[in-house]
User: What shape does this take?
Amino acid sequence: MANDVADPEGPLISPPAEEPPRHRSRRWLVAVGVAVVLVVAGIFVVASIVDMSRVPEFPSLAARPDPSLAGTVAYLDWSRPACVRVVDAAGSPTKVLGCDGNYLEWLDDGRLLVLGYDQPAGPETQTPTGGTILDVAAGTNEQVPLEDIPPRMPEGPDPAVGPNGERITVVGRDGEVEVLLDDGSGTRRLLSAQGGSAYEMGVQAWSPDGEWVLLSDSAARLLLVTTDEPSETWVLAEGFGNGVAVTGEDAFTG
Assistant: This one.
């Protein structure tokens, strides 16, 4: 038998066997299937996020002021931390008064008391940081001596209870919200809205005459809901943080 002669360039290497077409087709189908699953999963996640964050639409008082709505609302604007914004209940005018406080209260003389508290570890560790009394109409302010500020943030009345004993109840589940009014003679619905699964509302304050109630929602909006029949719901302000005070007077004219 003849001896094999080695190739001077190295050993001979046989080329790999060609993969059967059916195997290539199977791999391609698996890759396409995985891609489809990932795309569908991505669409589902995005749709879920969009659904959770969906909010119902209401007309804006800023765009269409209603002069029949009396009163003035002061609130903390979350987009400008600790900044106090005042808005006429009619929707206009509006004004930023300052940025130093987290407690608001209208005084009997029509001026606005703004107190600041540091809460490094929650409400149980409150420390007064300062106070100001603001005159919206005159554009003046008066500093409150630190020793005159209560050591703990004052607690206001139950926001769900109206000036004449009425009570507001907010019922919500999976983004479906109903606002109910019990005026002693029965319960009636003021508002029904459908948002995303994470949508919520909460009662913030009543007008002194009981003609409207303020609610906040998970979209950081202040909603004004009238208590007459039929009731109306308006967006009074956006960017609501925490803290609100209502007076029945027109603080812009004094």
